[in-house]
Amino acid sequence: QKEVEQNSGPLSVPEGAIASLNCTYSDRGSQSFFWYRQYSGKSPELIMFIYSNGDKEDGRFTAQLNKASQYVSLLIRDSQPSDSATYLCAVSPSGTYKYIFGTGTRLKVLA
Amino acid sequence: GAGVSQSPSNKVTEKGKDVELRCDPISGHTALYWYRQSLGQGLEFLIYFQGNSAPDKSGLPSDRFSAERTGGSVSTLTIQRTQQEDSAVYLCASGARGASTGELFFGEGSRLTVL
Fold first, then answer.
1. In chain A, pLDDT over 70 holds for what percent of residues?
2. Contacts of residue A42 in chain B, CB cutoff 8 Å?
3. For A63, left (φ over 0), alpha (ψ -120 to 50), or beta?
4. Cα of B13 to nearest chain A Cα, Å
5. Per-residue pLDDT averaged across B98-103, rounded?
């Protein structure tokens, strides 16, 4: 089992819809969870982080964490074509400052 | 500059040659990471430096890979006797340990092609 798993996609959604991106992780003691966005040919950039169970909202983005299910998700409301990118889930396992990344989900927002 | 700087941006080498990739992190960042990203894949952790502590080398794929960080700043990733499967983009990231966001700032990467 991979440490951090994501569906590779592509996930296609129409403009204005909600995009839902999911990630599961194997280390039950993990404390920190991150979503990075990576445009094609570019480096990843942080868009959200979450440490506590529940929801965290920032503009059109909502991160959801369920530690009991070892599941973290990212919702993008009112999706725009400019949101088309690969979204990488990253987890910091307990007791380390190492960040383990998933393989990413490619999102396509159709105009 | 204000961001993470990596060089070279592109490197083409022949199988069996050694290569060195350089990373200059954001000033004041004590944490420095190397990741590898193969085409269409996620980021594979290679090594992590934190200040003057011993590095976490648990992700280095073989003893052909090594890295050092001098003076707590610039880092060099060395790949000896390169193989074709080493072809990838090597990304360096830095972070301020203890920052509430745990954010990593990535460089633009060094694209390595081994012929």
1. 98
2. 108
3. beta
4. 21
5. 65
